[in-house]
Specification:
By secondary structure, the protein is mostly helical. The protein has eight helices and no strands. The longest helix has 23 residues.
């Protein structure tokens, strides 16, 4: 149930971020819905395909699509009446990243995969939808902008797995993992913390 709720909340939050990008890019209603769906289910779809989980989660359970429609409609209504919050996109994206990274890791963990693959699948679940959203809206993906993005997802998943190994209750481990990802993303957004740049010798 916790995993399912994380997934639904993550879908809703990522759908919100997709609509905010669409509004910023001045796309039409269909474009807004398309970006909302792509952001919300892109990472999970790729994960399910690689893990050979069929039918894919949103085909098996259409409530995911219903959540996307509701979240997108509410966000479109809000942005039509009020200007979106200054850091609204980044906050929505950070929350979606945290929820999806941990839920994706749990799915891989439940499949009995190695910790390395669990980390990879969780990070991909959290980041792939946002990458697709940014590419389709002609933006440089956040993951390539030096922000603590994929790094935050990896760190949160590692914390979650370590706490599981230490027999910490699952709910606490999930909460800690989500908090680490959110904390690192907020450090990047508010204080501009990022990974060091690569420099080539001339």
């Amino acid at each position: 149930m916790i995993l399912y709720l994380l997934d639904l909340i993550g879908v809703a939050v990522f759908a919100v971020s997709g609509v905010l990008v669409a509004a910023h890019s001045q796309l039409d209603l269909l474009g807004g819905l398309a970006l909302a769906a792509l952001t919300a289910i892109g990472g999970g779809t790729l994960r399910d395909v690689l893990l050979n989980r069929h039918p894919i989660f949103w085909i098996r359970d259409t409530r995911y699509l219903l959540v996307i429609l509701i979240a997108a409609a509410l966000t479109m209504t809000y942005t039509a009446l009020f200007p979106p919050p200054g850091n609204g996109l980044l906050i929505a994206d950070a929350l979606g990243l945290a929820l999806f990274a941990i839920s994706g890791a749990q799915i891989a963990e439940a499949a009995g995969l190695s910790p390395l693959i669990v980390v990879m699948m969780g990070a991909m679940t959290g980041t792939a939808g946002g990458m697709l959203r940014d590419v389709m809206s002609a933006h440089v993906p956040l993951i390539f902008q030096q922000d603590l993005y994929a790094t935050a997802a990896i760190a949160g998943i590692v914390v979650y797995l370590l706490l599981q190994k230490l027999t910490v209750p699952r709910t606490w481990a999930i909460s800690a993992g989500v908090a680490v990802i959110l904390g690192m993303r907020l450090l990047a957004v508010v204080w501009g913390v990022h990974l060091p740049r690569l420099h080539a010798m001339h």
